[in-house]
Amino acid sequence: METQIDTRHSASKSLNKSKENTPWRIAFxxxxxxxxxxLGVWVLLIIVMIGIFAPYLTPHDPEYADLLNTNGxxxxxxxxxxxxxxxxxxxxxxxxxxxSLIIGFSAMLFTIVIGTILGSxxxxxxxxxxxxxxxxxxxxxxxxxxxxVMTVVAILKEINILIFVSVMAFVSWPGITRIIRATFLSLRxxxxxxxxxxxxxxxxxxxxxxxxxxxxGPIIVNATLFMAGMIISESALSFIGFxxxxxxxxxxxxLTEALSLxxxxxxxxxxxxxxxxxVITVLAINFIGDGLRDALDPxxxxx
Amino acid sequence: MxxxxxxxxxxxxxxxxxxxxxxxxxxxxxxxxxxxxxFDPRITKDILDKKRAMFNLYDPPYKQYLSWLKNVLQGxxxxxxxxxxxxxxxxxxxxxxxxxxxxxSLIITLIVSIPIGIxxxxxxxxxxxxxxxxxxxxxxxxxNFYAGLIAIYLFxxxxxxxxxxxxxxxxxxxxxxxxxxxxxxxxxxxASTLGLAQTAGYMRYMRSEMMEVMGKDFIxxxxxxxxxxxxxxxxxxxxxxxxxxxxxxxxxxxxxxxxAVITENVFSWPGVGTLFLNAVINRDxxxxxxxNLIIATMVLVGNLLADIFYVIVDPRIRxx
Lengths: 303, 320
Description:
The complex is a heterodimer.
Chain A: H1 2-13, H2 23-33, H3 35-52, H4 54-57, H5 89-125, H6 127-140, H7 145-156, H8 161-188, H9 191-198, H10 203-239, H11 251-255, H12 261-266, H13 268-296
Helix pairs in contact in A: 2-13, 3-5, 3-13, 5-6, 5-8, 5-10, 5-13, 6-8, 7-8, 8-10, 9-10, 10-13
Chain B: H1 2-29, H2 45-54, H3 61-73, H4 87-122, H5 127-141, H6 144-158, H7 176-194, H8 196-214, H9 217-224, H10 229-266, H11 272-281, H12 285-313
Protein backbone atom coordinates (compact mmCIF):
# COMPACT_ATOMS: atom_id res chain seq x y z
CA MET A 1 0.00 0.00 0.00
CA GLU A 2 2.73 2.43 0.98
CA THR A 3 4.68 1.87 -2.19
CA GLN A 4 1.60 2.76 -4.17
CA ILE A 5 1.12 6.07 -2.46
CA ASP A 6 4.79 6.81 -3.05
CA THR A 7 4.71 6.02 -6.73
CA ARG A 8 1.51 7.94 -7.16
CA HIS A 9 3.17 10.97 -5.65
CA SER A 10 6.24 10.83 -7.80
CA ALA A 11 4.28 9.81 -10.85
CA SER A 12 2.23 12.96 -10.71
CA LYS A 13 5.47 14.90 -10.84
CA SER A 14 7.10 13.09 -13.71
CA LEU A 15 4.27 11.57 -15.61
CA ASN A 16 6.12 11.05 -18.87
CA LYS A 17 9.35 9.61 -17.56
CA SER A 18 8.01 6.49 -15.92
CA LYS A 19 5.34 5.30 -18.27
CA GLU A 20 5.49 1.90 -16.63
CA ASN A 21 4.19 3.09 -13.31
CA THR A 22 1.43 5.58 -13.88
CA PRO A 23 -1.16 5.39 -11.08
CA TRP A 24 -3.77 4.08 -13.51
CA ARG A 25 -1.50 1.30 -14.67
CA ILE A 26 -0.75 0.25 -11.10
CA ALA A 27 -4.43 0.34 -10.27
CA PHE A 28 -5.21 -1.74 -13.36
CA UNK A 29 -2.62 -4.34 -12.42
CA UNK A 30 -3.97 -4.47 -8.87
CA UNK A 31 -7.49 -4.82 -10.19
CA UNK A 32 -6.51 -7.68 -12.49
CA UNK A 33 -5.11 -9.61 -9.53
CA UNK A 34 -8.50 -9.49 -7.74
CA UNK A 35 -10.17 -12.64 -9.04
CA UNK A 36 -13.70 -11.80 -7.87
CA UNK A 37 -13.54 -8.38 -9.49
CA UNK A 38 -12.39 -9.86 -12.80
CA LEU A 39 -15.18 -12.41 -12.60
CA GLY A 40 -17.58 -9.52 -11.96
CA VAL A 41 -16.37 -7.78 -15.10
CA TRP A 42 -16.95 -10.91 -17.21
CA VAL A 43 -20.42 -11.51 -15.77
CA LEU A 44 -21.43 -7.90 -16.30
CA LEU A 45 -20.04 -8.04 -19.84
CA ILE A 46 -22.18 -11.10 -20.57
CA ILE A 47 -25.29 -9.38 -19.20
CA VAL A 48 -24.56 -6.29 -21.31
CA MET A 49 -24.13 -8.54 -24.36
CA ILE A 50 -27.46 -10.22 -23.59
CA GLY A 51 -29.06 -6.79 -23.51
CA ILE A 52 -27.46 -5.66 -26.76
CA PHE A 53 -28.10 -8.85 -28.71
CA ALA A 54 -31.52 -9.63 -27.24
CA PRO A 55 -33.25 -9.44 -30.66
CA TYR A 56 -30.96 -12.18 -31.99
CA LEU A 57 -31.39 -14.42 -28.96
CA THR A 58 -35.16 -14.67 -29.09
CA PRO A 59 -37.68 -14.40 -31.90
CA HIS A 60 -40.35 -12.99 -29.57
CA ASP A 61 -41.33 -9.37 -29.11
CA PRO A 62 -41.16 -8.65 -25.35
CA GLU A 63 -44.07 -6.22 -25.53
CA TYR A 64 -46.38 -8.29 -27.71
CA ALA A 65 -49.35 -9.41 -25.61
CA ASP A 66 -50.91 -12.65 -26.81
CA LEU A 67 -54.16 -12.49 -24.88
CA LEU A 68 -55.15 -15.98 -26.02
CA ASN A 69 -52.12 -17.49 -24.29
CA THR A 70 -51.82 -15.90 -20.84
CA ASN A 71 -49.99 -17.47 -17.89
CA GLY A 72 -48.67 -20.15 -20.21
CA UNK A 73 -46.36 -22.88 -18.95
CA UNK A 74 -42.80 -23.17 -20.27
CA UNK A 75 -42.67 -25.04 -23.56
CA UNK A 76 -40.57 -25.21 -26.73
CA UNK A 77 -41.92 -21.90 -28.06
CA UNK A 78 -42.02 -19.92 -24.82
CA UNK A 79 -39.02 -21.15 -22.84
CA UNK A 80 -40.19 -19.53 -19.62
CA UNK A 81 -43.89 -19.45 -20.40
CA UNK A 82 -45.95 -16.29 -20.76
CA UNK A 83 -47.03 -13.71 -18.21
CA UNK A 84 -50.53 -12.62 -17.22
CA UNK A 85 -50.83 -10.57 -20.43
CA UNK A 86 -49.49 -13.35 -22.63
CA UNK A 87 -46.06 -11.80 -23.17
CA UNK A 88 -43.08 -14.11 -23.59
CA UNK A 89 -41.21 -14.13 -20.26
CA UNK A 90 -37.86 -15.26 -21.67
CA UNK A 91 -37.88 -12.40 -24.18
CA UNK A 92 -38.80 -9.96 -21.41
CA UNK A 93 -35.96 -11.30 -19.30
CA UNK A 94 -33.43 -10.65 -22.08
CA UNK A 95 -34.78 -7.24 -23.06
CA UNK A 96 -35.21 -6.44 -19.37
CA UNK A 97 -31.46 -6.49 -18.88
CA UNK A 98 -31.25 -3.72 -21.46
CA UNK A 99 -33.72 -1.43 -19.68
CA SER A 100 -32.54 -2.26 -16.15
CA LEU A 101 -28.90 -1.61 -17.03
CA ILE A 102 -29.66 1.57 -18.97
CA ILE A 103 -31.71 2.93 -16.08
CA GLY A 104 -29.13 1.94 -13.49
CA PHE A 105 -26.34 3.45 -15.56
CA SER A 106 -28.04 6.69 -16.52
CA ALA A 107 -29.45 7.30 -13.03
CA MET A 108 -25.93 6.77 -11.70
CA LEU A 109 -24.44 9.09 -14.32
CA PHE A 110 -26.97 11.87 -13.61
CA THR A 111 -26.34 11.57 -9.89
CA ILE A 112 -22.56 11.58 -10.28
CA VAL A 113 -22.66 14.66 -12.52
CA ILE A 114 -24.88 16.59 -10.08
CA GLY A 115 -22.93 15.34 -7.07
CA THR A 116 -19.54 16.11 -8.60
CA ILE A 117 -20.51 19.64 -9.59
CA LEU A 118 -22.08 20.50 -6.23
CA GLY A 119 -19.47 18.61 -4.21
CA SER A 120 -16.51 20.22 -5.96
CA UNK A 121 -17.99 23.70 -5.71
CA UNK A 122 -18.71 23.18 -2.01
CA UNK A 123 -15.33 21.63 -1.28
CA UNK A 124 -13.28 24.06 -3.36
CA UNK A 125 -14.84 27.37 -2.40
CA UNK A 126 -15.93 26.49 1.14
CA UNK A 127 -17.53 29.24 3.21
CA UNK A 128 -21.05 30.36 2.54
CA UNK A 129 -21.72 28.37 -0.64
CA UNK A 130 -20.39 25.23 1.02
CA UNK A 131 -22.66 25.86 3.98
CA UNK A 132 -25.74 26.29 1.81
CA UNK A 133 -25.12 23.18 -0.28
CA UNK A 134 -24.31 20.98 2.70
CA UNK A 135 -27.29 22.16 4.77
CA UNK A 136 -29.54 21.39 1.81
CA UNK A 137 -27.98 17.93 1.63
CA UNK A 138 -28.49 17.44 5.38
CA UNK A 139 -32.14 18.36 5.11
CA UNK A 140 -32.79 16.17 2.13
CA UNK A 141 -31.11 13.22 3.80
CA UNK A 142 -33.89 13.30 6.39
CA UNK A 143 -36.29 12.09 3.73
CA UNK A 144 -35.71 8.40 2.98
CA UNK A 145 -34.99 7.69 -0.69
CA UNK A 146 -38.03 5.57 -1.57
CA UNK A 147 -40.42 7.85 0.27
CA UNK A 148 -39.16 10.91 -1.56
CA VAL A 149 -39.18 9.27 -4.99
CA MET A 150 -42.75 8.06 -4.46
CA THR A 151 -43.88 11.48 -3.24
CA VAL A 152 -42.36 13.20 -6.26
CA VAL A 153 -43.90 10.61 -8.57
CA ALA A 154 -47.29 11.21 -6.92
CA ILE A 155 -46.98 14.94 -7.54
CA LEU A 156 -45.83 14.52 -11.14
CA LYS A 157 -48.79 12.35 -12.16
CA GLU A 158 -47.10 11.11 -15.31
CA ILE A 159 -44.01 8.97 -15.49
CA ASN A 160 -41.70 7.79 -18.25
CA ILE A 161 -38.14 6.50 -18.25
CA LEU A 162 -36.52 9.93 -18.57
CA ILE A 163 -38.60 11.47 -15.79
CA PHE A 164 -38.02 8.42 -13.63
CA VAL A 165 -34.25 8.56 -14.03
CA SER A 166 -34.21 12.31 -13.35
CA VAL A 167 -36.27 11.86 -10.18
CA MET A 168 -33.92 9.14 -8.93
CA ALA A 169 -30.90 11.38 -9.57
CA PHE A 170 -32.57 14.44 -8.10
CA VAL A 171 -33.35 12.50 -4.95
CA SER A 172 -29.95 10.84 -4.45
CA TRP A 173 -27.46 13.67 -4.97
CA PRO A 174 -26.65 14.37 -1.28
CA GLY A 175 -24.71 11.16 -0.61
CA ILE A 176 -22.30 11.52 -3.49
CA THR A 177 -21.99 15.29 -2.96
CA ARG A 178 -20.77 14.70 0.59
CA ILE A 179 -18.13 12.23 -0.58
CA ILE A 180 -16.81 14.48 -3.37
CA ARG A 181 -16.78 17.47 -1.03
CA ALA A 182 -14.75 15.59 1.58
CA THR A 183 -12.23 14.55 -1.09
CA PHE A 184 -11.94 18.11 -2.35
CA LEU A 185 -11.53 19.49 1.16
CA SER A 186 -8.49 17.31 1.76
CA LEU A 187 -7.07 17.98 -1.71
CA ARG A 188 -7.44 21.74 -1.31
CA UNK A 189 -4.86 21.84 1.45
CA UNK A 190 -2.16 20.06 -0.53
CA UNK A 191 0.90 21.77 -1.92
CA UNK A 192 0.33 21.09 -5.59
CA UNK A 193 -2.94 23.00 -5.44
CA UNK A 194 -1.22 25.88 -3.70
CA UNK A 195 1.46 25.91 -6.38
CA UNK A 196 -1.13 25.77 -9.13
CA UNK A 197 -2.85 28.74 -7.58
CA UNK A 198 0.35 30.68 -7.04
CA UNK A 199 1.30 30.49 -10.71
CA UNK A 200 -2.08 32.02 -11.48
CA UNK A 201 -4.24 29.04 -12.41
CA UNK A 202 -7.92 29.92 -12.66
CA UNK A 203 -10.44 28.24 -10.37
CA UNK A 204 -11.91 26.40 -13.34
CA UNK A 205 -8.51 25.11 -14.39
CA UNK A 206 -7.53 24.07 -10.88
CA UNK A 207 -10.77 22.19 -10.37
CA UNK A 208 -10.72 20.39 -13.70
CA UNK A 209 -7.02 19.88 -14.32
CA UNK A 210 -5.71 19.33 -10.82
CA UNK A 211 -8.41 18.38 -8.36
CA UNK A 212 -10.88 16.28 -10.35
CA UNK A 213 -8.25 13.87 -11.71
CA UNK A 214 -7.08 13.28 -8.15
CA UNK A 215 -10.65 12.74 -6.96
CA UNK A 216 -11.33 10.22 -9.75
CA GLY A 217 -10.66 7.22 -7.47
CA PRO A 218 -13.47 7.84 -4.98
CA ILE A 219 -15.76 9.04 -7.78
CA ILE A 220 -15.35 5.86 -9.82
CA VAL A 221 -15.66 3.56 -6.81
CA ASN A 222 -18.80 5.27 -5.58
CA ALA A 223 -20.25 5.44 -9.07
CA THR A 224 -19.96 1.66 -9.33
CA LEU A 225 -21.56 0.98 -5.97
CA PHE A 226 -24.20 3.58 -6.76
CA MET A 227 -25.14 1.84 -9.98
CA ALA A 228 -25.79 -1.37 -8.04
CA GLY A 229 -27.97 0.57 -5.62
CA MET A 230 -29.86 2.19 -8.48
CA ILE A 231 -30.61 -1.19 -10.08
CA ILE A 232 -32.05 -2.42 -6.77
CA SER A 233 -34.05 0.79 -6.28
CA GLU A 234 -35.39 0.62 -9.82
CA SER A 235 -36.53 -2.95 -9.28
CA ALA A 236 -38.20 -2.07 -5.97
CA LEU A 237 -40.00 0.95 -7.43
CA SER A 238 -41.07 -0.89 -10.58
CA PHE A 239 -42.23 -3.79 -8.42
CA ILE A 240 -44.75 -1.62 -6.57
CA GLY A 241 -45.74 0.08 -9.81
CA PHE A 242 -43.90 3.39 -9.50
CA UNK A 243 -41.06 2.77 -11.85
CA UNK A 244 -41.04 2.12 -15.54
CA UNK A 245 -44.61 1.61 -16.72
CA UNK A 246 -45.70 -1.55 -18.55
CA UNK A 247 -45.33 -2.93 -21.17
CA UNK A 248 -41.64 -1.91 -21.22
CA UNK A 249 -39.86 -4.89 -19.66
CA UNK A 250 -37.62 -4.38 -16.63
CA UNK A 251 -36.71 -7.04 -14.09
CA UNK A 252 -38.51 -5.04 -11.44
CA UNK A 253 -41.86 -4.81 -13.17
CA UNK A 254 -41.63 -8.46 -14.23
CA LEU A 255 -41.59 -9.28 -10.52
CA THR A 256 -44.93 -7.51 -10.15
CA GLU A 257 -46.46 -10.77 -11.42
CA ALA A 258 -45.53 -12.41 -8.13
CA LEU A 259 -47.98 -10.16 -6.28
CA SER A 260 -50.65 -12.55 -7.53
CA LEU A 261 -50.73 -15.49 -5.14
CA UNK A 262 -51.51 -17.89 -7.97
CA UNK A 263 -48.40 -16.89 -9.93
CA UNK A 264 -46.32 -16.93 -6.75
CA UNK A 265 -47.47 -20.42 -5.88
CA UNK A 266 -47.84 -22.24 -9.19
CA UNK A 267 -45.72 -20.34 -11.69
CA UNK A 268 -42.28 -19.87 -10.12
CA UNK A 269 -40.73 -19.62 -13.61
CA UNK A 270 -42.46 -16.27 -14.02
CA UNK A 271 -40.86 -14.53 -11.04
CA UNK A 272 -37.76 -16.40 -9.91
CA UNK A 273 -35.59 -15.70 -13.01
CA UNK A 274 -35.88 -11.86 -13.05
CA UNK A 275 -34.95 -11.77 -9.36
CA UNK A 276 -31.94 -13.98 -9.97
CA UNK A 277 -30.86 -11.68 -12.80
CA UNK A 278 -31.02 -8.70 -10.41
CA VAL A 279 -28.99 -10.54 -7.77
CA ILE A 280 -26.34 -11.67 -10.27
CA THR A 281 -26.02 -8.21 -11.82
CA VAL A 282 -25.78 -6.42 -8.49
CA LEU A 283 -23.29 -9.00 -7.19
CA ALA A 284 -21.10 -8.55 -10.27
CA ILE A 285 -21.18 -4.76 -9.94
CA ASN A 286 -20.44 -4.91 -6.21
CA PHE A 287 -17.44 -7.19 -6.83
CA ILE A 288 -16.17 -4.76 -9.45
CA GLY A 289 -16.71 -1.89 -7.00
CA ASP A 290 -14.79 -3.65 -4.23
CA GLY A 291 -11.98 -4.45 -6.65
CA LEU A 292 -11.85 -0.84 -7.81
CA ARG A 293 -11.81 0.37 -4.22
CA ASP A 294 -8.83 -1.79 -3.37
CA ALA A 295 -7.05 -0.82 -6.57
CA LEU A 296 -7.76 2.91 -6.70
CA ASP A 297 -8.04 4.09 -3.17
CA PRO A 298 -6.02 2.16 -0.61
CA UNK A 299 -6.93 4.63 2.11
CA UNK A 300 -10.63 3.80 1.84
CA UNK A 301 -9.98 0.14 2.46
CA UNK A 302 -10.87 -1.16 5.90
CA UNK A 303 -8.76 -3.88 7.58
CA MET B 1 -21.20 17.91 27.29
CA UNK B 2 -24.63 19.16 28.24
CA UNK B 3 -23.83 22.30 26.32
CA UNK B 4 -23.09 20.22 23.25
CA UNK B 5 -26.34 18.28 23.59
CA UNK B 6 -28.30 21.47 24.10
CA UNK B 7 -26.70 23.00 21.05
CA UNK B 8 -27.50 19.96 18.93
CA UNK B 9 -31.13 20.13 20.03
CA UNK B 10 -31.28 23.83 19.22
CA UNK B 11 -29.83 23.23 15.73
CA UNK B 12 -32.66 20.77 15.21
CA UNK B 13 -35.33 23.49 15.39
CA UNK B 14 -34.44 25.34 12.15
CA UNK B 15 -34.02 21.94 10.48
CA UNK B 16 -37.53 20.97 11.56
CA UNK B 17 -38.92 24.24 10.26
CA UNK B 18 -37.22 23.68 6.90
CA UNK B 19 -38.52 20.12 6.72
CA UNK B 20 -42.05 21.36 7.39
CA UNK B 21 -41.67 24.04 4.70
CA UNK B 22 -40.53 21.39 2.20
CA UNK B 23 -43.44 19.11 3.04
CA UNK B 24 -45.86 22.03 2.80
CA UNK B 25 -44.41 22.99 -0.59
CA UNK B 26 -44.92 19.42 -1.78
CA UNK B 27 -48.56 19.57 -0.76
CA UNK B 28 -48.99 22.86 -2.61
CA UNK B 29 -47.27 21.49 -5.73
CA UNK B 30 -49.58 18.51 -5.69
CA UNK B 31 -52.58 18.92 -7.96
CA UNK B 32 -55.98 19.34 -6.32
CA UNK B 33 -57.00 20.27 -2.78
CA UNK B 34 -59.08 18.55 -0.09
CA UNK B 35 -62.28 19.47 -1.94
CA UNK B 36 -61.32 18.38 -5.44
CA UNK B 37 -62.67 14.91 -4.82
CA UNK B 38 -66.10 16.19 -3.71
CA PHE B 39 -68.70 14.28 -5.70
CA ASP B 40 -71.82 15.10 -3.69
CA PRO B 41 -74.14 16.71 -6.29
CA ARG B 42 -75.85 18.87 -3.65
CA ILE B 43 -72.57 20.72 -3.06
CA THR B 44 -72.37 23.32 -5.80
CA LYS B 45 -69.32 25.21 -6.91
CA ASP B 46 -70.49 28.15 -4.81
CA ILE B 47 -70.48 26.14 -1.61
CA LEU B 48 -67.09 24.68 -2.50
CA ASP B 49 -65.71 28.18 -2.96
CA LYS B 50 -67.08 29.17 0.42
CA LYS B 51 -65.62 26.05 1.99
CA ARG B 52 -62.28 26.76 0.39
CA ALA B 53 -62.40 30.27 1.79
CA MET B 54 -63.37 28.86 5.17
CA PHE B 55 -60.27 26.66 5.14
CA ASN B 56 -58.17 29.66 4.07
CA LEU B 57 -57.24 28.08 0.73
CA TYR B 58 -57.36 31.51 -0.92
CA ASP B 59 -54.94 33.04 1.59
CA PRO B 60 -51.35 33.82 0.61
CA PRO B 61 -49.12 30.74 0.95
CA TYR B 62 -47.22 31.91 4.04
CA LYS B 63 -50.48 32.41 5.94
CA GLN B 64 -51.66 28.98 4.85
CA TYR B 65 -48.34 27.55 5.95
CA LEU B 66 -48.65 29.08 9.41
CA SER B 67 -52.17 27.83 9.97
CA TRP B 68 -51.18 24.40 8.63
CA LEU B 69 -48.20 24.35 10.99
CA LYS B 70 -50.43 25.29 13.91
CA ASN B 71 -52.71 22.37 13.10
CA VAL B 72 -49.81 19.95 12.69
CA LEU B 73 -48.35 20.96 16.03
CA GLN B 74 -51.69 20.11 17.59
CA GLY B 75 -51.58 16.70 15.94
CA UNK B 76 -54.11 17.58 13.28
CA UNK B 77 -52.91 16.42 9.84
CA UNK B 78 -56.16 17.06 8.02
CA UNK B 79 -58.67 14.62 6.63
CA UNK B 80 -57.85 11.75 4.28
CA UNK B 81 -59.29 12.53 0.86
CA UNK B 82 -60.17 8.92 0.25
CA UNK B 83 -61.26 7.51 3.58
CA UNK B 84 -62.81 10.66 5.03
CA UNK B 85 -61.17 9.93 8.40
CA UNK B 86 -58.75 12.27 10.12
CA UNK B 87 -55.22 11.34 9.02
CA UNK B 88 -54.08 11.25 12.64
CA UNK B 89 -56.56 8.45 13.41
CA UNK B 90 -55.32 6.38 10.47
CA UNK B 91 -51.73 6.94 11.54
CA UNK B 92 -52.42 6.07 15.18
CA UNK B 93 -53.79 2.75 13.95
CA UNK B 94 -50.84 1.98 11.63
CA UNK B 95 -47.77 3.37 13.40
CA UNK B 96 -47.64 0.70 16.18
CA UNK B 97 -47.59 -2.08 13.55
CA UNK B 98 -44.73 -0.51 11.63
CA UNK B 99 -42.76 0.22 14.80
CA UNK B 100 -43.24 -3.39 15.87
CA UNK B 101 -41.97 -4.59 12.49
CA UNK B 102 -39.01 -2.21 12.39
CA UNK B 103 -37.91 -2.88 15.96
CA UNK B 104 -38.18 -6.66 15.52
CA SER B 105 -36.14 -6.28 12.35
CA LEU B 106 -33.45 -4.34 14.21
CA ILE B 107 -33.33 -6.93 16.99
CA ILE B 108 -32.95 -9.77 14.46
CA THR B 109 -30.24 -7.81 12.66
CA LEU B 110 -28.29 -7.31 15.87
CA ILE B 111 -28.56 -10.84 17.24
CA VAL B 112 -27.54 -12.30 13.90
CA SER B 113 -24.87 -9.90 12.74
CA ILE B 114 -22.92 -9.23 15.94
CA PRO B 115 -22.11 -12.85 16.93
CA ILE B 116 -21.33 -13.85 13.34
CA GLY B 117 -19.18 -10.76 12.95
CA ILE B 118 -17.26 -11.68 16.09
CA UNK B 119 -16.72 -15.28 15.00
CA UNK B 120 -15.58 -14.15 11.54
CA UNK B 121 -13.13 -11.71 13.07
CA UNK B 122 -11.74 -14.29 15.50
CA UNK B 123 -11.20 -16.89 12.83
CA UNK B 124 -10.71 -15.05 9.57
CA UNK B 125 -10.66 -17.19 6.42
CA UNK B 126 -12.30 -20.10 8.24
CA UNK B 127 -15.33 -21.91 6.86
CA UNK B 128 -17.69 -19.82 8.99
CA UNK B 129 -16.00 -16.64 7.85
CA UNK B 130 -16.32 -17.62 4.20
CA UNK B 131 -19.98 -18.58 4.58
CA UNK B 132 -20.64 -15.32 6.39
CA UNK B 133 -18.90 -13.37 3.64
CA UNK B 134 -20.92 -15.18 0.99
CA UNK B 135 -24.13 -14.47 2.89
CA UNK B 136 -23.03 -10.86 3.24
CA UNK B 137 -22.54 -10.41 -0.49
CA UNK B 138 -25.83 -12.12 -1.31
CA UNK B 139 -27.72 -10.16 1.34
CA UNK B 140 -26.46 -6.86 -0.03
CA UNK B 141 -27.31 -7.83 -3.61
CA UNK B 142 -30.84 -9.15 -3.02
CA UNK B 143 -33.69 -6.63 -3.04
CA ASN B 144 -35.57 -7.15 0.23
CA PHE B 145 -38.92 -7.61 -1.51
CA TYR B 146 -37.46 -10.45 -3.59
CA ALA B 147 -36.14 -12.08 -0.44
CA GLY B 148 -39.65 -11.68 0.98
CA LEU B 149 -41.22 -13.38 -2.05
CA ILE B 150 -38.79 -16.28 -1.83
CA ALA B 151 -39.43 -16.60 1.92
CA ILE B 152 -43.18 -16.76 1.31
CA TYR B 153 -42.69 -19.28 -1.48
CA LEU B 154 -40.51 -21.53 0.68
CA PHE B 155 -41.83 -21.21 4.21
CA UNK B 156 -45.51 -20.50 3.58
CA UNK B 157 -46.30 -22.27 0.34
CA UNK B 158 -43.86 -25.19 0.12
CA UNK B 159 -43.38 -26.07 3.80
CA UNK B 160 -46.45 -24.37 5.26
CA UNK B 161 -44.58 -23.34 8.41
CA UNK B 162 -45.31 -19.64 8.57
CA UNK B 163 -48.27 -17.43 7.68
CA UNK B 164 -47.68 -15.18 4.67
CA UNK B 165 -49.94 -12.28 5.54
CA UNK B 166 -51.09 -9.94 8.29
CA UNK B 167 -50.04 -9.39 11.88
CA UNK B 168 -52.18 -12.00 13.66
CA UNK B 169 -54.38 -14.91 12.65
CA UNK B 170 -57.77 -13.45 11.79
CA UNK B 171 -60.64 -14.74 13.90
CA UNK B 172 -58.45 -16.62 16.36
CA UNK B 173 -58.82 -15.40 19.95
CA UNK B 174 -55.38 -16.06 21.29
CA UNK B 175 -54.33 -14.76 24.68
CA UNK B 176 -51.11 -14.70 26.64
CA UNK B 177 -48.36 -16.94 25.35
CA UNK B 178 -50.38 -18.22 22.39
CA UNK B 179 -50.95 -14.64 21.23
CA UNK B 180 -47.24 -13.87 21.54
CA UNK B 181 -46.33 -17.00 19.57
CA UNK B 182 -48.89 -16.12 16.88
CA UNK B 183 -47.51 -12.60 16.56
CA UNK B 184 -43.98 -13.93 16.47
CA UNK B 185 -44.84 -16.33 13.64
CA UNK B 186 -46.33 -13.46 11.65
CA UNK B 187 -43.53 -10.99 12.16
CA UNK B 188 -40.49 -13.22 11.73
CA UNK B 189 -40.53 -13.39 7.91
CA UNK B 190 -41.24 -9.72 7.12
CA ALA B 191 -38.82 -8.57 9.83
CA SER B 192 -35.92 -10.73 8.74
CA THR B 193 -36.31 -9.97 5.03
CA LEU B 194 -36.76 -6.26 5.75
CA GLY B 195 -33.46 -6.24 7.62
CA LEU B 196 -31.60 -8.49 5.20
CA ALA B 197 -29.34 -5.81 3.73
CA GLN B 198 -28.76 -4.28 7.16
CA THR B 199 -27.84 -7.68 8.62
CA ALA B 200 -25.37 -8.33 5.82
CA GLY B 201 -23.89 -4.85 6.11
CA TYR B 202 -23.54 -4.94 9.90
CA MET B 203 -21.90 -8.33 9.73
CA ARG B 204 -19.19 -7.05 7.42
CA TYR B 205 -18.87 -3.89 9.45
CA MET B 206 -18.64 -5.80 12.73
CA ARG B 207 -15.94 -8.06 11.32
CA SER B 208 -13.74 -5.26 10.08
CA GLU B 209 -14.33 -3.19 13.20
CA MET B 210 -13.37 -6.10 15.49
CA MET B 211 -10.24 -6.80 13.44
CA GLU B 212 -9.26 -3.16 13.57
CA VAL B 213 -9.64 -2.93 17.34
CA MET B 214 -7.73 -6.23 17.77
CA GLY B 215 -4.75 -4.62 16.10
CA LYS B 216 -4.68 -1.69 18.52
CA ASP B 217 -1.91 -1.18 21.08
CA PHE B 218 -4.10 -1.48 24.14
CA ILE B 219 -5.11 -4.99 23.13
CA UNK B 220 -1.46 -5.98 22.88
CA UNK B 221 -0.92 -4.43 26.30
CA UNK B 222 -3.83 -6.39 27.73
CA UNK B 223 -2.46 -9.58 26.22
CA UNK B 224 1.05 -8.97 27.53
CA UNK B 225 -0.38 -8.39 30.98
CA UNK B 226 -1.53 -11.99 30.77
CA UNK B 227 -5.21 -11.26 30.63
CA UNK B 228 -7.41 -14.19 29.66
CA UNK B 229 -8.34 -14.18 25.97
CA UNK B 230 -12.03 -14.20 26.85
CA UNK B 231 -11.75 -10.95 28.82
CA UNK B 232 -9.74 -9.34 26.04
CA UNK B 233 -12.31 -10.35 23.49
CA UNK B 234 -15.49 -9.41 25.29
CA UNK B 235 -14.40 -6.61 27.58
CA UNK B 236 -11.77 -4.79 25.58
CA UNK B 237 -12.36 -5.52 21.93
CA UNK B 238 -16.11 -5.96 21.71
CA UNK B 239 -16.98 -2.87 23.71
CA UNK B 240 -14.89 -0.69 21.47
CA UNK B 241 -16.06 -2.34 18.28
CA UNK B 242 -19.70 -1.96 19.25
CA UNK B 243 -19.61 1.83 19.52
CA UNK B 244 -19.94 2.61 15.80
CA UNK B 245 -22.41 -0.26 15.34
CA UNK B 246 -24.80 1.04 17.98
CA UNK B 247 -24.61 4.58 16.68
CA UNK B 248 -25.34 3.34 13.18
CA UNK B 249 -28.72 2.20 14.48
CA UNK B 250 -29.85 5.79 14.82
CA UNK B 251 -29.23 6.35 11.13
CA UNK B 252 -30.68 3.03 10.07
CA UNK B 253 -34.13 3.54 11.47
CA UNK B 254 -35.37 5.80 8.69
CA UNK B 255 -34.07 3.38 6.07
CA UNK B 256 -35.98 0.56 7.76
CA UNK B 257 -39.24 2.48 7.85
CA UNK B 258 -38.83 3.43 4.18
CA UNK B 259 -37.98 -0.16 3.23
CA ALA B 260 -41.13 -1.17 5.05
CA VAL B 261 -43.16 0.51 2.29
CA ILE B 262 -42.28 -2.39 0.01
CA THR B 263 -41.90 -5.22 2.51
CA GLU B 264 -45.26 -4.43 4.11
CA ASN B 265 -46.81 -4.58 0.68
CA VAL B 266 -45.36 -8.04 0.02
CA PHE B 267 -46.65 -9.39 3.35
CA SER B 268 -49.93 -7.39 3.43
CA TRP B 269 -48.73 -5.92 6.73
CA PRO B 270 -51.17 -3.20 7.87
CA GLY B 271 -48.57 -0.56 8.69
CA VAL B 272 -47.55 2.93 7.64
CA GLY B 273 -45.89 1.51 4.52
CA THR B 274 -49.04 0.04 3.02
CA LEU B 275 -50.94 3.17 4.04
CA PHE B 276 -48.35 5.29 2.25
CA LEU B 277 -48.35 3.14 -0.87
CA ASN B 278 -52.15 3.25 -1.12
CA ALA B 279 -52.11 6.99 -0.46
CA VAL B 280 -49.63 7.49 -3.32
CA ILE B 281 -51.71 5.31 -5.64
CA ASN B 282 -54.90 7.24 -4.74
CA ARG B 283 -53.09 10.59 -4.61
CA ASP B 284 -54.33 11.05 -1.06
CA UNK B 285 -52.04 14.00 -0.40
CA UNK B 286 -52.82 14.71 3.29
CA UNK B 287 -51.67 11.19 4.17
CA UNK B 288 -48.56 11.41 1.97
CA UNK B 289 -47.53 14.70 3.57
CA UNK B 290 -48.22 13.55 7.13
CA UNK B 291 -46.11 10.41 6.67
CA ASN B 292 -43.29 12.37 5.04
CA LEU B 293 -43.29 14.84 7.89
CA ILE B 294 -43.37 12.19 10.60
CA ILE B 295 -40.66 10.02 9.10
CA ALA B 296 -38.36 12.95 8.31
CA THR B 297 -38.75 14.07 11.90
CA MET B 298 -38.03 10.55 13.15
CA VAL B 299 -34.87 10.36 11.05
CA LEU B 300 -33.76 13.73 12.37
CA VAL B 301 -34.34 12.69 15.97
CA GLY B 302 -32.67 9.32 15.30
CA ASN B 303 -29.55 11.07 13.99
CA LEU B 304 -29.54 13.37 16.99
CA LEU B 305 -29.80 10.46 19.41
CA ALA B 306 -27.01 8.65 17.56
CA ASP B 307 -24.74 11.69 17.81
CA ILE B 308 -25.48 12.20 21.48
CA PHE B 309 -25.02 8.53 22.24
CA TYR B 310 -21.70 8.55 20.43
CA VAL B 311 -20.42 11.37 22.62
CA ILE B 312 -21.64 9.68 25.80
CA VAL B 313 -20.09 6.26 25.16
CA ASP B 314 -16.86 7.36 23.53
CA PRO B 315 -14.89 9.79 25.70
CA ARG B 316 -12.30 10.20 22.94
CA ILE B 317 -14.76 12.26 20.90
CA ARG B 318 -14.37 15.97 21.42
CA UNK B 319 -17.61 17.81 21.50
CA UNK B 320 -16.75 21.45 21.78
